[in-house]
Amino acid sequence: MNERRAIDYLNEMYEAASEALSFVGGMDGAAFAGDKLTFKAVTFCHFTIGAAASRLLVTHPEFATEHPDLPWTKICGTGNRILDGVFDLDPSDIWEATYRTLPELLSAIDAIRHWHAQGE
User: Fold this and answer.
1) Residue 91 and residue 32 in contact, taking contact as beta carbons nearer than 8 Å
2) How large is the average pLDDT for residues 6-22?
3) Rounded to whole angstroms, what are the CA distances from 102 to 5, 7, 49, 50, 87?
4) Of residues 115 and 114, which shows the higher confidence score?
5) Cβ contacts of residue 55 below 8 Å, gap of 6+?
6) What own/partner pairs with CB < 8 Å and gap ≥ 24 does 62-68 have?
7) Closest-CA residue to 14 (of 93, 96, 97, 107)
8) Is residue 3 classed exposed, middle or buried when 0-12, 13-18 and 19+ CB atoms within 10 A define those classes?
9) Residue 69 or residue 29, greater confidence
10) 112: buried, middle or exposed (CB in 10 Å: 19+, 13-18, 0-12)?
11) Residue 2: predicted pLDDT
12) Which residues, if any, are the signal sequence (predicted)?
């Protein structure tokens, strides 16, 4: 089996976060709550971020120790909460998580990728 590198999972997280923010670009919370397609797409992006983070930590447990600046437990937990509550998700919770956490996540991932590119 071809094991993915930690940076590949990190890139998947980055792509999903970027997509989620682009999907909601120009929307307000009410428009988001009323747009079922966008709600589901953004929710799936959050799930993807959590799944990629979980897989990264399973296959590369040292990565979390090397990069404690990311809230790994919270990131993984978000994906699990979405999966567990898929039929009871509140659009305002997803909206808030998108604007509150994803820009910070993108910045943190950029910093890690830059750090790795420098050969650290």
Assistant:
1) yes
2) 95
3) 22, 18, 10, 12, 23
4) 114
5) 4, 9
6) 63/6, 67/112
7) 107
8) exposed
9) 29
10) buried
11) 44
12) none
The owner of tokens 């940076």 is 7
**pLDDT tens sequence across 33-49:** 999 999 999 999 999 99
Looking at residue 27, its amino acid is M
Give the distance from CA 72 to its chain's centroid: 10
Are the CB atoms for 10 and 109 separated by under 8 Å?
yes
Nearest in space to 9 (alpha carbons), one of 95, 112, 83:
112
Taking the C-alpha atoms of residue 98 and residue 23, their distance in angstroms, rounded to an integer, is 10
pLDDT of residue 32: 96
pTM: 0.87
- Spatial separation of the C-alpha atoms in residues 92 and 59, rounded to whole Å: 33
Length of the chain: 120
Residue 119 has pLDDT above 90, yes or no: no
